[in-house]
Design brief:
Strands 2, 3, 4, 5, 7 and 8 form a 6-stranded antiparallel beta sheet that branches. The protein has 7 helices and 8 strands; from the N terminus they run E-H-H-H-E-E-E-H-E-E-E-E-H-H-H. The relative contact order is 0.23. The two termini are about 45 Å apart. By secondary structure, the chain is an alpha+beta fold.
């Protein structure tokens, strides 16, 4: 299986819209709490509920734990446009090579699109806390697998430089709401009954 047959990372909904939606949901929930509901749960549990449901953990790549599979020899696509044009088989002997890149953080971020456009797609498969990359290369281009993988890592880093700061800003808002919800004054105030604890 080639890298191009995998799903494209960072190709889903725009991050900005997803974070705005999360904050709006959090604020509606906070505003809907009445005094009895607020006082029925411990301050620590109420605060933790906001953290558990609305935070996203920034992605940190664990590059020191990268692993690669042993190359598997077999038929691969040659990508020879000249041969394909004249109806010749596009399959030649080559190798299938896989790389695994572990990470810390919320895997959902790897599906979200940054605000900028025009970046080359990155193909991979996300499973739990790992990104898997699979490449098919011909014998003559065996070294290109590692080059493609290095290019994928560079592309991921570029996107995370844009995505992670926005996630961190979002988390500060969630943490602020969580912190305010633990204050006795808020829990008994009109804000607990009629307003929101979450500011921007």
């Amino acid at each position: 299986m080639s890298g191009r047959q995998h799903k494209s990372l960072f190709a889903g909904e725009m991050l900005h819209g997803v974070l705005e939606q999360r904050r709006a949901t959090m604020e509606r929930e906070s505003a809907a709490h009445n005094t009895d509901q607020v006082l029925a749960i411990s301050p620590a549990d109420l605060a933790q509920s906001y953290v558990d449901r609305y935070r996203l953990e920034p992605i940190v790549l664990r590059e020191d734990e990268i692993s690669a599979s042993d190359p598997v020899e077999g038929a691969v696509e040659s990508h020879d446009r000249y041969a394909a044009r004249f109806g010749e088989s596009g399959m030649v002997q080559g190798f299938r090579v896989s790389f695994t890149l572990p990470f810390h953080g919320s895997s959902e971020i790897l599906k979200l699109s940054p605000n900028s456009f025009g970046q080359m797609p990155i193909y991979g498969t996300v499973s739990d806390d790992r990104i898997h990359f699979h490449y098919e290369v011909t014998r003559e281009n065996f070294a290109s697998a590692e080059k493609q993988f290095d290019s994928a890592i560079a592309g991921i880093k570029d996107r995370l430089r844009e995505l992670n700061p926005n996630v961190e800003h979002h988390n500060r808002i969630v943490d602020r709401c969580s912190s305010i919800s633990k204050r006795p004054s808020w829990r008994r105030s009109r804000r607990a009954r009629d307003g929101t604890c979450c500011g921007r």
